[in-house]
Amino acid sequence: MDGNMISNLIQIKEQELAARKKIVLRCCMAAGCMSLDAKGVREQLEKAVAEAGLQNEVEVRGVGCMRLCCEGPLVAADPQNTLNIKVTTKNAPSIIAALRDGKTEVSRTDPNSSFFTKQLSIVLANSGVINPERIESYIAADGYHALHEVLHEMTPREAVEALVKSGLRGRGGAGFPTGLKWGTVAKSPGAKKYVICNADEGDPGAFMDRSVLESDPHAVLEGMAIAAYAVGADQGFIYVRAEYPLAIARLQIAIKQAKQLGLLGSGIFESPFNFNVDIRIGAGAFVCGEETALMASVEGKRGTPRPRPPFPAESGLWGSPTLINNVETFANVPPIYRNGADWFAGIGTEKSKGTKVFALAGKIRNTGLIEVPMGTPLRVIVEDMGGGAPDGGKIKAIQTGGPSGGCIPAQYLDTPVDYESLGKLGSIMGSGGMIVMDDTTNMVEIARFFMEFCMDESCGKCVPCRAGTVQMHHLLNNIANRRATARDLAKLEELCDMVKHTSLCGLGQTAPNPVLSTLRFFRNEYEELLQPDPFGPPSNGEVKKQTAAMH
Amino acid sequence: MAAKTLTINGKQISAEEGATILQAAEEAGVKIPTLCHLDGVYDVGACRLCLVEVTGVPKLLPACTTKVSEGMEIKTDSEQLQKYRRLTLELLFAERNHVCAVCVANGHCELQTLAYSQGMDHVRYDYCFPKWGVDNTHRLFGMDHNRCILCTRCVRVCWHIEGAGTKNVAGRGSKAKIITDLNMPWGESGSCTNCGKCVQSCPTGALFYKGSTVAEMERDRSRLEFIVTAREKKLWVASD
Amino acid sequence: MSFLDLDEFLIELAQKVEIVFSPVVDVKEYPRDVDVCLIEGAICNEDHVEMVHKIRKYTKTVVSFGDCAVTGNVTAIRNQLGLGNRENVLQRAYVEAAQLNPCVPEDKGIVPPLLERVMPVHEMVYVDYYLPGCPPPAARIKSFVTQLLEGKELHLAGAEIKFG
Predict the structure, then answer these.
(1) What's the complex ipTM?
(2) Closest by Cα among C20, B194, B93, B46 to A304
(3) Disulfide engineering: A437 pairs with which of A2, A254, A441, B118, CB 3.0-4.6 Å?
(4) What is the CATH number of domain B3-77?
């Protein structure tokens, strides 16, 4: 493409809008629905449209995640504003017939229910709307306009300042101010700099990043390109886990299309800015989500973390300053520049701006993907949107942050979702996994499950994580199997403290969190399992000095 | 090079810019326990024994990889640190099969020495008793995985000093293992130069000269030092 | 045996303590109200379990004496064979290694049933003091016993608690 690039973008947008048909059937083509033959549904719908002779009126569009994953495959009809659920290939003719008379035997759900209306879509704005495999579809939704504006209207420094002003914080879990990180990389001296997108989402029950990549890959690419311009990088890597083949395929398509249109590569938008993106595929290690391990893996080395400092912003990939952000963080970037930092800063709470995407799972009626403004109370999420526990159960706790997070008991349901509030309760925002537990859930089992996960995923480099998780798991096993005494519980707590404070990377430092948080709120469940200790230390507290420190 | 002034355990010292806390402490006569650290090869900060407290930093920092900075206040022996060190050692002893009484390195073992110098008189955690084998296929050396603590000193000397790249780590977590080449018997390794630096570097009885029996495996680190000095300072002289 | 290396200190010691139970004292039942018990060896069969519980019950100060008691040491190497190794161990000892009448003694009261796993003393009962060493050298025993007799807070440090 040559000539004035922005006019080409506008031209593509206009063509795309002009070609739009009267009726659009949006078929979810994200991994959840695909596993239930959404592809077959889409093919049958296309066939049914052809058979009804409606090719000129009806577009069957494969789109990304439409959120209500538990009811998939989902098919929405515009402008009828209907949402068909649990669609099978046999339902296709009925759905097409319903476009005429509105009657159908296919189950539907109310698109105006709280699950949908309480959401605020920034990251997922295009998800379920555009076709993720067509760049034109993204451009028609104002895609790549922000990149153009940043390249032509802003200096890199202004670009960083805008992000600082937006108040965006890292969506990977820790919530580090993104603008500050960009500024550090921008200021770090070095001729070569890198931008990395961390798409190694590994928490059990978390699928936010996968959905974003499958539903709107160009938003991530555009965010990365803006970041690269702001920090002065010319090479980007997306590190995706191999377990996300669909996300990888759509990223590959997206990169190819962006290159063809000159939106990636050399001299983007006729500016001196060059930026290329390559995909690196993970080999199944959870620890590679840790930034230093991830970088080692990108470099082709064994994916193990190294001590920080130096932080990647000073010395990252091959020793060069490197910016690492998570998928959702990058996906937030184009809307921020499109709508302005003030707009973004006006959403959310004082310290947590914008929205957060959560993967709602577990013992809850509506499972799926939600995006809510920061500060939304947990109760709104699980009761109004999630519909509460199924089968008349009672919600007992909510687990956030996966194996690094904690369990928040039901009495704290009015806690607003933001970095600080969740932290105060001993949990973390995390990347967005939210697992709801009802009163049938055994909290010791939960702790044991997450500990087993950390034990299996420990890379083995540092002693506290490698050997400590094994011992903590062993102790949890003994407690769960009623083979432990109060002394064992004390040993477990001591180990939690030690592993938390001495491990090399985030995996080990947070591995004890599920135990600590369940102990904090559900200690009785542990104590009920303990056995008497008749041959233990004297109960009058007369423990001898030499061993006092050891017991 | 500019000097930095800092305090270690309340004592004011100065250190060269770019020096690690460990180097600064050593120069000032403050002993910080180490296990994965080996003079002459790069540090990895893996054993966590050299963790120290630095005022103003919420996390404990490994002395071997953390560089000194102006005005740093470092504590190396707080009660907390001593407790963590003892726990780390207990975890190591419980992890694999360390039977000091019948070990080639008995009396010359850094793990054993650290255990008693840190006051570890017993291990409170259940021993794991994993099943690990012994690789006796090499003509000169043996590798007993039961006694390996995965400090990766052997890997680092093999890559960094010898440049052969024979030793490596495979697997993860408690199943991590030191391997030769692509996980083949040591004796069949095509890249091993039989230099024996790995044997000299091993802190425990995991690597040994064949034929050595209980308590016979003494290391001569000056041999490693000689090569490092020769390469880095271009001085081809033995240190003594 | 290492205890015998105490040589003339044994005579001094004999004047201060009464040995009420030991392999060299002809008493079958563990007595009550014992002040100090030095336990040698790991816990590996059901007799040991019974005995160690009895010792803890009737003794003021229990000492894990030597590496086998403290760590399991060589006697615990059988644990590396995995759980359920009892049969293999007996097979090896009484059948494969036997020169005469190879058979596993099955009658009750001959060989006490082995535990699934050999364990150090403190895994079973609370231990007041640890005296590692294989064997603990005489000087170490002397230092320990002297401190104990003086009724001071015991303090063993450095090489006095060296394993092996």
Answers:
(1) 0.95
(2) B46
(3) A441
(4) 3.10.20.740
